Amino acid sequence: MNVKAMAVFVLLVVCNCANAQETAAEKKTGFLDMGVTLTEQSGQDYNDSSNPLNSGNYRKYAAGKTYYINRMPYTYRLDGMPDPVFGHGFISTSFRKWYEMCKQLELNAGLHLDISYTIWGQWASKRVSGVSGKATPPGLTTGRLDVQGYWDLPQNNPLGNSRVNFRMRQTTNYGWSDGTTLDTTIGDVSGVNGGYDPSIAMMVLSYGQELFDGAVDVEVGKVHPGMYFFASPVADDETSQFINNVLDGSPCQVINNYAPGAIIRINELFGRKDMYLYAAAIDMADTSTTCAGGIGRGKWGVVTEYGWTPKFEDLQGHYRFDWWYADNTHFGFNSGQGAGLNFDQEIAHNCILFLTYAYNANDSYSQEHQLGYGVGILEPFKRRGEMFGVGGGWAKATENGADEQLLETFYRFQLTDSIQFSPDLQMIFNPAYAPDTSVCFVLGFRVKVQF
After folding, report:
1. Domain 3-450's class?
2. CB 374 within 8 A of CB 243
3. Both ends of the chain: CA-CA distance in Å?
């Protein structure tokens, strides 16, 4: 592990283990970081555009109330649950004024801030031979700062509630140049997430408008379609859930995930609250580091999603079908259509099965087929903020038709109210671009600090 990354990790843990005293009042309310969007509503949350990237939202949540996570219910059962491993920790205690200030900003100005820093460390058991011109590190440690949130605009708009969404990101590979990934080392097509994204960028900057008393939402600007399409409560955020791209978020990744565009969400279809329809148009000639630079080149993508959220004997389900078309020639692929199926289904409260499948036609993306499946268990030992996940997947590479399989498992420990630690193991079987490798193990860890 890189020395700098080790020093950062040790410092964070030591600081949070110190001064871990708490009051009785703190025990009553507590803090929760589920790593996903949470909303305190009696009905569906419509994926809640309040948090553009479905990552940790550091707020206080009330015991016994049900929150919705990407249309799936979660009840915050604080009473009788053990505290995090090391209690509140130094960051939670010493930054109390900061938290109070953020709460006042929410109440008085409508400004909601969510700031986190995540470190991933990953090591591969095998390396592809014969790769020229690219770095193939045996391991990689990556740090990422996310500053995101939204600003509720004054409530004098005759159309309805409105807000400005934003997200900035800064990414650093410790000891290697930015952009270096473990995918080159392993020769995989699924994406083990060993370093990605630009060094610094404005990822999201958009205006959201509610219409018809919330029955319709419109968002324009630099948007993030992956927040709404195929969004899962247990497989949608690499900072706190699965790391492999096949098990992390939308499989319709051919559609630019951070780019200028527009999204419309019809939250009640045919007068039914358990059906919805989403649609988006996205500039396909832009990247996460640019904004509106590709508009006018005529390269666009569109995606639609039809969703159904039934209940089966008090167990919530979320089923959806997506179709998309993308002119992906700017990134070296062809133009083409695609389609996908996805579901999340509670089999017990706070235990959710998930499955995603996507097909990309006409060589329009690096993967012709993609399949991900697994289970996520929230708080398996009744310790708030913790999660266990195990999943598998399959990807068929467009370039050579190779079939790649994968398995991943992780456990997310809530060390303090501010720090999560997740050991992670991935197994990549028959990597698409490494014909001599039958299986590669990727051992990793993740530390997430919520400020």
Report:
1. mainly beta
2. no
3. 24
CB-CB neighbours of 185 under 10 Å: 28
Q: How do the pLDDT tens digits run along the chain, 451 residues long?
A: 454 555 544 445 444 444 433 332 222 222 223 333 334 333 333 333 333 223 333 233 444 445 555 555 554 443 344 467 776 655 555 666 777 787 788 888 888 888 889 999 999 998 876 555 566 778 889 999 999 888 888 877 788 888 999 999 888 888 777 677 788 788 888 888 754 555 678 889 999 999 988 889 999 999 988 888 888 888 888 888 999 989 987 655 667 678 889 999 998 888 888 899 999 998 887 665 566 555 556 678 899 999 998 988 888 899 999 998 888 776 677 778 889 999 999 998 789 999 999 888 877 677 788 999 999 998 888 777 789 999 999 998 888 888 999 999 999 998 877 788 999 999 999 998 888 889 999 999 999 988 7
- Are 229 and 265 in contact by the 8 Å Cβ rule? The answer is no
In SS3 terms, the chain reads as CCHHHHHHHHHHHHHHHCCCCCCHHHHHHCCECCCCCCECCCCCCCCCCCCCCCCCCCECCCCCCEEEECCEEEECCCCCCCCCCCCCHHHHHHCHHHHHHHHHHHHHHCEEEEEEEEEEEEEECCCCCCCCCCCCCCEEEEEEEEEEEEEECCCCCCCCCEEEEEEEEEEEEECCCCCCCHHHHHCCCCCCCCCCCCCEEEEEEEEEEEECCCCEEEEEEEECHHHCCCCCCCCCCCCCCCCCHHHCCCCCCCCCCCEEEEEEEECCECCECCEEEEEEEEECCCCCCCCCCCCCCCCEEEEEEEEECCEECCEEEEEEEEEEEEECHHHCCCEEEEEEEEEEEEEECCEEEEEEEEEECCCCCCEEEEEEEEEEEECCCCCCCCEEEEEEEEEEECCCCCEEEEEEEEEEEECCCCEEEEEEEEEEECCCCCCCCCEEEEEEEEEEEEC
Residue 409 CA to residue 407 CA, distance in Å, equals: 7
Domain boundaries, the chain: 3-450
